[in-house]
Specification:
By secondary structure, the chain is an alpha+beta fold. 33% of the residues lie in helices and 15% in strands. The C terminus is likely disordered.
Length: 163
């Protein structure tokens, strides 16, 4: 039996019909056409499907779409505004913290939640915030460096990172 749900994704309201077993990841990718969240392991281990749901990073492959009804969701596509990259996205590019890019959205969204809660995290806090995300290409040095750089370079204040 299908169900009508409403999702607020990147500030836009979507009304979609879903199957009871359909994941949030599949709805985001297949029904909304947003391909930033990746289908990696599909069991919540790699973090490539990470989105922010009501302010928390979640593995969208593990969330039934029906459980996201009425929730506010941010995907990587929702961070850039008017063609300008979010400071975290800029830092990942500047610091060479990406290679194939498959894992990058999950790292950036996990880091965004961290910096929203703690604008000046220690290296240990950064590592803890991203520990559920796996990278097979770059390792983690550049990723940690990019998150630290985004936190430090906010000359415009942390409001820029929080948007």
């Amino acid at each position: 039996m299908k169900k009508d749900i409403e999702l607020i994704v990147n500030g836009h309201l979507y009304e979609v019909v879903v199957k009871p077993t359909e994941s949030l990841l599949d709805v985001i990718r297949d029904k909304l056409g947003l391909s930033g969240a990746k289908k990696g392991c599909n069991v919540g281990e790699c973090g490539s499907c990470t989105v922010i749901m009501d302010g928390m990073p979640v593995r969208s492959c593990l969330i039934l779409a029906t459980r996201a009804d009425g929730k506010n969701i941010i995907t990587i596509e929702g961070l850039a505004e008017r063609g300008k990259l979010h400071p975290l996205q800029e830092a990942f590019v500047r610091e060479g913290a990406l290679q194939c890019g498959f894992c990058t959205p999950g790292f950036i969204l996990s880091a965004k939640v961290l910096l929203d809660e703690n604008p000046n995290p220690s290296e240990e806090e950064i590592k803890r915030a991203i520990e559920g995300n796996l990278c097979r290409c770059t390792g983690y040095t550049g990723i940690i460096k990019a998150i630290r750089a985004a936190a430090e370079s906010s000359g415009k204040g942390q409001e820029e990172i929080k948007r």
